[in-house]
Amino acid sequence: MADITLISGSTLGNAEYVAEHLAEKLDEMGYTSDIRHGPTLDELTAEGTWLIITSTHGAGDLPDNLQPWFDALNKQRPNLSAVKYGAVGIGSREYDTFCGAIEKCDLLLNELGAQRIGETLKINVLEHEIPEDPAEEWLHSWAKLLKEL
């Protein structure tokens, strides 16, 4: 089992690229990682450390490849008290629903008993042409929090 499971939801690929970059950085830090682009609920165990990375599209909607996982979580309501997670959202501040997808994920995971580690990173693509850069910077502080657990 990986130390950290990265779960990405992406419409245009940005969240996938960020997940792959962060997995590489985590591996360099000595963690093992497993990337799941749009996983099913059955692919994940209700324990361990998850890192959710998702873009937002439409009116604060989750990407199509992450929506089934979210819906299954919401319907089945598993106990996630053994899950700790980090949250990274990617969106545009031009929209009222900036990073709405990660906010929905964060709320649901919290309702199901998961514990978020640190603050949610919200990347504005209008300010960061390469979203991997702020994500990598955030990852270093997040990894320090992991070590304190």
Give an overview in words.
The chain is an alpha/beta fold and 149 residues long. The protein has a domain at 1-7 and 28-93 and 106-128: Rossmann fold (3-Layer(aba) Sandwich), CATH 3.40.50. It has 4 helices and 6 strands. Strands 1, 2, 3, 4, 5 and 6 form a 6-stranded parallel sheet that branches. The radius of gyration is 14 Å and the shape is globular. It starts with a strand and ends with a helix.
SSE order in H/E notation?
A: EHEEHEHEEH
Total count of strands? 6
Named CATH topology of the domain at 1-7 and 28-93 and 106-128:
Rossmann fold
Helix/strand-derived category reads alpha/beta
Count of helix runs: 4
What is the strand and helix layout of this fold?
Blueprint: E1 4-9, H1 14-28, E2 33-37, E3 48-55, H2 67-76, E4 83-91, H3 100-111, E5 115-116, E6 121-124, H4 132-147
